[in-house]
Amino acid sequence: MLVCASLFWAGNFMIGKYAFLSEIPPLTLVFFRWSLVWIILLPFTYKEIIKYKDTILNNLPLLFFLGLTSVGLFNSFTYLSLIHTQVINASLFNTAIPAIIILLCFLFKIEKTNKFQILGLIISACGILTIITKLKLDVLLSLNFNKGDLIMIGGVLTWGVYSTLLKKKKFTLPLLTLVHVICTFEFSKLISLSISTPKEAIKDLIA
C-alpha cells in the first residue's frame, strides 16, 4: 500500500508537468482533479455526511481552512511551481513536509520533539537550501532563486499547516467522509474562482 501511495504521489507531479506542457492552466487542473475526486467519493460517503451533519456544522471554520490549505493552496502551489521548475525538484521539496510538520507541532505545542526529530529537521533544511541554491554561494548571496522552487516551498508550508491541524483536532468523522467534506468546501471555492478570475489574471500569475 505504501509503495502504491508513493507511486500515485509521484504521478501527481508528472501529470502536473504534463499539463503545463499541454497548456492546461494550473488552476484548471486543480479544479478538474478534485471534481473527479468529489464524484468518486460521493457514493461511498453521502450517508455518512448526513449521519455526521452536526459534527460537520460544528466545525465549519476549521473544515473550510483545512480545505483551503490542502485542496486549494497546496495543489495550486504544486502545479504553479511545475511551470518554472523540474519535477525532481518539486518532488524533493515534498520530502521536507514531515520536517515542517515536526516544526509546527513543536511551535504549537501539539507534540514533544526529540533530538532525532530535530536532527532530521536540520538535515531537511540543508536539503532545501541545496536544491534552491544548487550549491552555489552566489545564488544564496544574491537571493536569485528559481521562482518554481519558492512557490513549491509555499506548497510544503501549506500542507504542513494542514497536517498539523489534523493532528491537533481529532475528528470523529470516518476518513473518507472527512476527505469528501474538506474537498466539498474547497471545491465550492474553486468553482467561484474559476468563474470570477479573468484569464488575463491567470496568465499574469504563471508568467
Share of helix, binned? over 70%
User: Could you give the distance between the termini?
Assistant: 38 Å
SS strand fraction: under 5%
Tell me the radius of gyration.
18 Å
**Average pLDDT metric:** 81
Q: Count up the domains.
A: 1
Order of helices and strands: HHHHHHHHHHH
Structure summary, number of beta strands: 0
Characterize the overall form.
Answer: globular
* Separate helix tally: 11
Structural class: mainly alpha
* Unreliable residue stretches: 196-206
Reported for the largest beta sheet, the result is: none
Describe this structure in words.
The protein is mainly α and 207 residues long. It has one domain (27-206). 82% of the residues lie in helices and 0% in strands. The chain is built from 11 helices and no strands. The chain is globular and about 60 Å long. Mean pLDDT is 81; it is low at 196-206.
Write the layout of secondary structure elements.
Elements: H1 2-21, H2 26-51, H3 53-58, H4 60-81, H5 87-94, H6 97-107, H7 115-133, H8 137-142, H9 147-168, H10 175-196, H11 199-206
Helix pairs in contact: 2-4, 2-10, 4-9, 4-10, 5-9, 6-7, 6-9
Q: What would you say about this model in short?
A:
The chain is mainly α and 207 residues long. Helices cover 82% and strands 0% of the residues.
